[in-house]
Amino acid sequence: MTTESAQLADLMRRVRALEIVREIEQLKYRYLRACDAKDAAAFRDCFVREGADLDYGVLGQFSDREPLVQIFEAVARSRGGDGSWLVHDIHHGHHPSVEVIDENTATARWTLGFVTLHVTPGLLTQASMEYEDRYVTEDGRWKIQRSYAKPLTSVTTAVPAGVMLGPGIKA
Questions:
Q1: 121: phi then psi, degrees, rounded to nearest 5
Q2: CB 73 within 8 A of CB 61
Q3: How far is CA 80 from CA 55, 77, 84, 118, in A?
Q4: Residue 119: CA atoms inside 13 Å, Cβ hemisphere, count?
Q5: Other residues' Cβ atoms within 10 Å of the Cβ of residue 116
Q6: Residue 121 confidence (pLDDT)
Q7: Separation between Cα atoms, residue 19 and residue 23, nearest integer Å
Q8: Tens digits of per-residue pLDDT, 77-121?
Q9: Is 41 in contact with 69 (CB distance < 8 Å)?
Q10: Residue 171 confidence class, pLDDT cut points 50, 70, 90
Q11: What's phi and psi for 118, nearest 5 deg?
């Protein structure tokens, strides 16, 4: 291999690694947006179909995505008697550190800033945690195979009267 062809091969390898990092970042952002949008189908689609290794702390440990999706549907998608959402979330992923292992495997660490508003009983929680993830390709797309969420901080307080709790809903 000539020096020029070796340089070209190295450049192509580095570009592909950057593409993989970007694809994984976009996957995690889709996951976070699905959480906030209460989109169970998009949430489910972020994980491998079978054999996920998930540790979400107080929510539980799971060896498949479906039990986590069921909790997501029960908690994040809960509604009041008038049909309005009882929980409003904001997930912000920060500081991704993605390591490409090979064309089909990668790991990453993320910091999560999280705010959740429970309309009933009027509580606001601000929390942070660290995700340690492993990603694999499935049918040509990156998916979360392992995700461990380690809590860092959490503060819960009552929502003061008059604060907007959701579209058209005040405390």
A1: -105, 25
A2: no
A3: 29, 10, 6, 11
A4: 21
A5: 17
A6: 86
A7: 6
A8: 999 998 988 999 999 999 999 999 999 999 999 999 999 999 888
A9: no
A10: low
A11: -95, 105
Which tokens go with 82? 């008038």
Non-local CB neighbours of 17 within 8 Å, separated by 6+ positions: 100
- DSSP codes joined into one string, 52-64: -EEE-GGG-EESS
Tokens of 162: 């008059």
Residue with more model confidence, 149 or 165: 149
Instruction: Note the pLDDT of residue 162.
Output: 79
Q: Name which of 151, 159, 158, 106 is nearest 127 in CA terms.
A: 151
Round to whole Å and give the CA distance between 3 and 129. Answer: 46
CA nearest 40: which of 74, 86, 64? 74
Tokens of 11: 């450049």
pLDDT (average), residues 156-167: 81
Give me the amino acid identity at 29. Answer: Y
Cis peptide before 160 (omega within 30 of 0): no
Residue 120, Cβ neighbours under 10 Å: how many? 11
